[in-house]
Design a protein that fits this description.
By secondary structure, this protein is α/β, with parallel strands linked by helices. It has four domains: 110 residues, no CATH class; 122 residues, Glutaredoxin (3-Layer(aba) Sandwich); 172 residues, Mur-like, catalytic domain (UDP-N-acetylmuramoyl-L-alanine:D-glutamate ligase), CATH 3.40.1190.10; 140 residues, Protein-Tyrosine Phosphatase, Chain A (Alpha-Beta Complex). 42% of the residues lie in helices and 16% in strands. The strands form four sheets. A six-stranded parallel beta sheet has the order 8-9-7-10-11-12, covered by helices on one side. Helix 14 links the parallel strand 8 and strand 9. Helix 1 crosses helix 4 and helix 2 packs antiparallel against helix 6. The N terminus is likely disordered.
């Protein structure tokens, strides 16, 4: 029954919410799960029937909970017509006991967060086992390969199954480089014949012919596998059985990630280090791994979506820039969003470094960050910086404190910052026409980002805002608008949110499209211009672009087109 418990738990966590089981202390989790298994083992035959009734492909549509008791209740409901009153009571009583244990799991403090077994050691556990055809195999296979890509999956995991074909293609690619892809289906441990038959059928259906192996669940490798709570999970193993990977500098936060990631890369390169930059920007990390190239430092921009399902990331240095309301159309609430961000630090140890915005001590304590902590604030350390705004002075300071850990001198960092050009769509100066400066900050998709953008200017601002609203305190911006803005030119969706919030503070107009709003601002249609000499026309929508554009990039490009082709 233990295997069923872990499989179903991983299914509910990984498929329904995309979250791993990180955040629970290993010892306590093991003990509580053991208690749950003992309860279920008392009525193993009944529970086997109930759990086997679950349609795992449809389970993600049936429940939105990570509580295993909800999975049990669903299984009971599926078979209740087949049960006697006594058996029904037996199962419901068991489920109630499990729910109490699950409640304890949910309430465990984050500071005792479980580190995935993978992060506890740099060595993949040795094993003796078989492939799914019964041929003997052991961990000596690592020595036979230049590198080995090990993918953990299970048959009921839709994302796992979906990538099997791609993994087969990957296997063909890495074979040419002396490598190999190995699959480990956690349901097949202990030579489970039924699970092996199911796995083989799925692999055949997906056209995946690379080796899949199994071994005893009680072995060190078995314990390693069963402690993985986020699926699919993949490792790259070198010839010596070491989990491969260059030191990682990870950057997350609600805003400023791309700029800070790029600043870090620039500083490291200026020091003479070889850098790979990727994650949420640039080249996919998988391409870097397959390239065979070796960087001195891997710099990754990491979104909440990526971090939420990440159980094995272990950055030497992690930067958390800020946290404000965002992506609540994806995350169920702010707690889930914050928890996703804090996963950046989950596997760090006392030898690693966490770079945190000033004032995050309480958050660091709540999530039990074990790494050395250093806090940053706005600094004038780099006076030749071309980036606008106090937030960018913060970003540069955070980047410097992180890169210092890799031997970057302050002099090298200063040279990198002085040469660093503003990134496209991020407070990007587009043109100055008739004494009016046009600035593209299309990447500004939140209310907090708008607050930062407005604070970046000493000149009066004519603000262009609007789009698909993501939430936030619009009335709370009124004092800042009164201080910095001359007027607001709205466009697109969310007029009904912006106008009531701001119209009593400053003049507000509305147009259907961005181009129409810009024409109004420049006085192109016979109306008095809203922007005067000395003003800044700032595109800072505080919304996503999805009402009229496929992404913020296209919105920013359209802004620049209108400025250059219509207004110039």
């Amino acid at each position: 029954m233990k295997k069923n418990r872990l499989i179903a738990f991983a299914l509910s966590v990984s498929l329904l919410l995309g979250a791993s089981a990180c955040g629970k202390p290993a010892k306590t989790v093991s003990e509580l799960i053991a208690e749950e298994n003992a309860i279920l083992d008392q009525h193993q035959e009944l529970w086997t029937t109930a759990l086997n009734s679950l349609d795992k492909d449809k389970l993600s549509q049936s429940t939105q909970s990570t509580n295993y008791a909800d999975v049990l209740d669903l299984a009971i409901n599926n078979v209740k017509d087949q049960l006697s009153d006594e058996d029904y009571k037996t199962l419901t009583d068991d489920a109630a006991k499990v729910r109490k244990l699950e409640d304890q799991l949910q309430e465990l403090p984050p500071e005792t967060a479980e580190a995935n077994t993978a992060s506890a050691s740099d060595t993949f556990p040795s094993f003796e086992g078989k492939d799914l055809d019964g041929n003997a195999v052991d961990s000596s296979l690592f020595a036979d390969n230049a590198f080995t890509v090990v993918n953990f999956w299970f048959s009921g995991c839709k994302p796992c199954v979906a990538e099997l074909g791609d993994l087969d293609k990957l296997n063909q690619t890495v074979k040419a480089q002396g490598g190999e892809v190995i699959g480990i289906n956690t349901e097949t441990l202990d030579d489970n014949a039924d699970a092996i038959a199911t796995a083989k059928q799925i692999l055949q259906t997906k056209g995946a012919s690379y080796r899949n192996i199994t071994f005893a669940s009680g072995s060190e490798a078995g314990k390693f596998a069963l402690n993985i709570m986020s699926f699919p999970t993949t490792y790259v193993i070198d010839r010596n059985g070491k989990i491969a990977g260059e030191p990682v500098l990870g950057v997350t936060g609600t805003s400023g990630k791309t700029t800070t990631t790029s600043l870090c890369a620039a500083m490291l390169k200026e020091q003479g280090l070889t850098v790979f930059t990727g994650g949420n920007i640039g080249t996919p990390l998988s391409e870097y791994i397959l390239s065979g190239e070796k960087a001195d430092v891997v710099v990754l921009e990491l979104s909440s979506f990526q971090l939420q399902t990440c159980s094995t990331l272990h950055p030497r240095v992690g930067i958390l820039l800020n946290i404000s309301e965002n992506h609540l159309d994806f995350h169920k609430d702010m707690d889930e969003y914050i928890s996703a961000k804090m996963r950046l630090f989950a596997n760090q140890t006392e030898t690693d470094l966490a770079v945190l915005q000033d004032g995050m001590d309480e958050l660091a304590g709540k999530y039990g960050i074990k790494a050395r902590k250093i806090h940053y604030t706005e600094s004038d350390r780099f006076p030749d910086m071309q980036l606008m705004g106090p937030h960018n002075r913060c970003n540069a300071e955070a980047a410097w404190l992180a890169c210092r850990e890799f031997g970057v001198t302050e002099e090298a960092a200063a040279r990198a910052v002085a040469a660093f050009q503003p990134l496209e769509h991020r407070l990007e100066k587009v043109a100055e026409i008739n004494g009016v400066q046009y600035v593209n900050d299309s990447k500004c998709t939140t209310v907090e980002a708008l607050r930062v953008a407005l604070s970046s200017f000493d000149r009066p601002v004519v603000l262009l805002a609007g789009g698909k609203f993501k939430g936030g305190d619009l009335p709370g911006l009124c004092p800042l608008l009164k201080e910095h803005a001359r007027c607001v030119a709205l466009f697109g969706a969310s007029r009904e949110r912006f106008e009531p919030a701001w119209r009593d503070t400053l003049p507000v107009t509305w147009d259907r499209t961005l181009e129409q709003a810009l024409r109004r601002v420049a006085g192109k249609d016979g109306q008095p211009a809203l922007a005067h000499e000395g003003d800044v026309v700032l595109l800072a929508p505080a919304c996503s672009s999805y009402d009229q554009y496929p992404n913020y990039l296209r919105r920013g490009e359209d802004f620049k087109r209108v400025v250059h082709e219509v207004l110039a």
